[in-house]
Amino acid sequence: MSKVWIFDLDDTLHDASSKIFPSINQSMTNYVSHKLKISHHDAHDLRDQYWKVYGATLKGLIENHGVDPKEFLLSTHNAEELSKFVKQSHALENTLKKIKGKKIVFTNAPLHYAIAIIKSLNIQKYFSAVYSIESTLYNPKPSLYAFKKILRQLGKKAHQCIMVEDDLANLKTAYKIGMKTILVSKQNKKIIFVGKRITKITQLI
To answer: β-pairing, 196-198 with 129-131?
Structure first.
């Protein structure tokens, strides 16, 4: 029975923390401030609050302010600008080439951004599908709903899948429903729901 490899995108397949995330964060705060006509400081606090309650700024904006998710995602993820921060890696390409089985990307990012980043990394040929925040009807990982929706779309059972992620909360859900889990992180703590830990993606082979 062939395995399905489910890869997160940001900070798993490439480094998003150093330049991409700060830029997106700034754009999101600007958007909230402008849209709700509040100060940057208040916008920042509101986003913090929505993270705690909903796991994402967008979910809070949809629930409480009726914000159009497409508008929000397009104005906060300028794919053309953000792709410039991406560094191609032959080692990454080589790793993906050697991994046997179906490979997909499952990200909380919007589709236009995910595709632009994957193309900039020159790895689009290794993935049979990209599941984005739109695929889960704007319910982000680690929600159970998001995982179940992706499994239904894949037509697979959880035990047939291996989740490769940098985020512990997302791996916890994956483990709970029966997926194998691989953490991409430099932290060394033993965690029950992490099957294997690697410090970078190229260590998969």
So the answer is: unpaired
Work out the angle between the directed axes of helices 57-65 and 69-76 (0-180°, nearest 10). Answer: 140
The DSSP line for 174-195 is HHHTT-EEEEE-S-----TT-S
CATH, range 4-15+85-204: 3.40.50.1000
Q: At 113, which helix (H) or strand (E)?
A: helix 111-120
Q: Domain 20-79 maps to which CATH number in 1.10.150.450, 3.30.70.20, 1.10.30.50, 3.40.50.2300? A: 1.10.150.450
Determine the pLDDT at residue 196. 95
What is the mean pLDDT for each group of 10 consecutive residues in the chain (205 residues)? 91 96 97 98 97 90 96 96 95 96 97 98 98 95 96 96 97 98 92 95 94
Cα distance between residue 201 and residue 205, in whole Å: 9
Return all residues near 189 (Cβ < 8 A) that are at least 6 apart. none
